[in-house]
Every structure is written in structure tokens, then in C-alpha cells.
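Why run this: before we spend reagent on co-expression, it is cheaper to look at a predicted model of the complex and decide which construct boundaries make sense. The entries below are exactly what would go into the expression plan.
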Amino acid sequence: MGNCFRGGLCVAALLIVSMPALAHHGAAEYDNTKTVSVKGTVTALRYTNPHVLIVFNVKNDKGELTEWTAESQSPNLLSRRGWSRSTLKPGDEIVVTGHPVKNGVPAMSASKVVFADGRDTPNMGLPADSSK
Amino acid sequence: MRKRIAFALICSLAWLLSSSGVLHAQAAKPGAPGADFTGVWYPSSGATLGAATPENPGQQFVWLDEQGNRLKGPLPLTPWGLERTKANRPTGPTVTAVDSNDPDFQCFPSGVPRIYLFLYPMEIIHTPGRVLQVFEYGHNIRQIFTDGRGHAKDEEPTWMGDSIGHWEGDTLVVETTNQNDKTWFGYGGQPHSEALKVTERIRRPDHDTLTIDIRLEDPIAYTMTLRTQKRYVLKPDWNIKEFVCEDNSINFLDYEKKVAIPQKNP
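The model came back. C-alpha cells follow.
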């Protein structure tokens, strides 16, 4: 994973992770056969329906910035998981894990976000007790 | 003397308040003991029978036949149903929301039974003569009339249809007709006609659980009766939050266009 943090992007594993909540508008745009972890600096957290978008800048080895967007669950669902609109603030260093889009633009789904110093953000998944 | 009058007034007021409370409680329990579904409910995983599986991740129904056997293969469509299915363009491996004609993405009400598929809570409110379902998803509000009236006559079909309910012991039996034929049964683009009749049996088998047995009869679109089931869990500390579908395009369309897969034959 260390290389991921330096290079900004890496393919962490070939995992099939279902994200049913994203099915609201389909998940065809994401390549579910690939899971990536991307490190960057938050520029905005768009905490709005139907799905939260995390906008962050990723710096490559030459110091050039690329703006990435990561899509997550609905704000309603995330709020019930402990998120709020101030969970991520501009300037926060984060590592986002999820599936990249198929068309190659710098965008991805977000199934997990941790701060670069190792602190966790609240779980983004479906409520743990949803299988009751 | 003044103290006695004041005391009598307070007692009268308390009696009035408590008696109106009793009336309210009676209205909230129109059937047998247990026939009170008041509360906020969240769909349990799998949304249907049992836990979610890779083939049923939770936002589609598990279809059963009349006898309760799980259907295998495609749904039993009539030629009319097949034609409608071909015209529908659901999201899939190569079709994103931008390219789909799913009515859900245009913020239309989802109809019954599809409204049960979304992973958002619903609140049930009992009022005299009506049971209300307040769905967080799309802010759909469904009125189930339990005052003995029949179905409306000569009305134009609507997105959520006309729902009439009655109590059989602790079970609320709801019959819904007069839905328009524009809604789908799910993300797969399963069609139905205006002849669709939905019969639900809603029960609360224990304090924390609500089950809804759903029966779909639509001889114009399907060659047989379809059945399915939904299960909800009580969320005592939740309330319904705002969800305005029309926000979606404002907040999201630029992102949808950015990540869309280029279509070879638009």
C-alpha cells in the first residue's frame, strides 16, 4: 500500500464489492473488477442528494494536480452512519478506496475513506444491522 | 375557594386531555392487538426472502409463483409484456442512468411494489379511516383507506394507484388498483399494465419486524400470478429525512455525464 500513497493511485486488489446503494442510478459506470486506493487533498464535500460526492486533488510525482471525484452513498444513509457535512473539510488528507470508472476520467466510487494519518472516518456501508 | 376552583379546572383539563388521548390511541389501533404498525421501518437486507446473495443484492425482488416456489429464469411475460420490456431501457453493464429511460431517474413516483425496493426508511402513521405510509425515498406518501369505502370509479390511473385496506385480525390487507402503466417492478425494467392488481398482507410478527406479502395479478403483462415478500425492521430512534429527487439532476447531472460510458449507437 505504501506505493499507493506515493504514486497517488494503485490497484489494491481484484475484488468484487457490491455497492447496492449506488444502484439508485445504476453502477454501470464503475469497473467492479478493480479496487483502487487514491490519496489526495479534499477540496469539497458535496453532501447532497442523491449521492455524496467527495472532490479532492491528487498530486503526481511531478507535483501536478489532478481533480478527482468520488461518489458515495446518499447523505441520508451516511448521516445515519455517523457522517456529517463536516466529516471531511477542505485541506484534509485522505485515502479513498473504491472502484474506478470505466471511461478513464479521474472518478471512482467510494466504499471507504480514511485520513492519511490513519484515522478512520465512519463506515460508509449499509447499516450493519440491515440483515436483521 | 379560589384554590378549589383552580383545582377543579386543572382536573377537568387533565380529564379532557387524557380522554382525547384515549380516543387517539383507539384510532391508532383499528384492528386486533398487534395491529399497530406505527413507527419508522427500514428494509432488511435482501429486501425479500432471507439474506442478500450475489444474485439478489437487495434492490430487486425474489419472485415466487402462486405456491410460493421461487421462479427460475425470466418472468413469464405475455407477448404484450414482452413488447413493453423491449421498449424499456434499464441500467445495466453498459447502460448508465444518463442513457436509461427508467422512470425512477426522472423523479416519477415509483408505484407499488417498486417503492419497497429502495434502501430508505418508511414511516407508518395510523389515522382514523386511513393508514399512511411516508416513504423517505422521493417523499412518496401513500394513503391506504380503511374506512370501508370501495375503489374510486372512473378515475384516471395514477402513479401510486388507489389503495383500499381492511383488517383481518392483526393483518392489514391492502388492494391497490388503477396504477398507470409507466412504473416498473424494479431496476430491471419489468413492465406492468393498468390492469395490475396488487394485494398486500402486512403483519407485525414481533415488535421489531414488519412483513409484507405481495401478490401481483396482471394478466395483460404476465401469464401467471407473481408473489414476493418484503421485510422491515423497526428503527425507534430514526425519523424520516428530506430526500428531494429533483435535487438529483441539479447536484448530479454533471457528474453523471462525466462518468457515462460512451454509447456506440446512441
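Helices of chain A lie at 2-7, 75-80. Chain A is about 10% helix and 35% strand. Bring this page to Monday's planning discussion.
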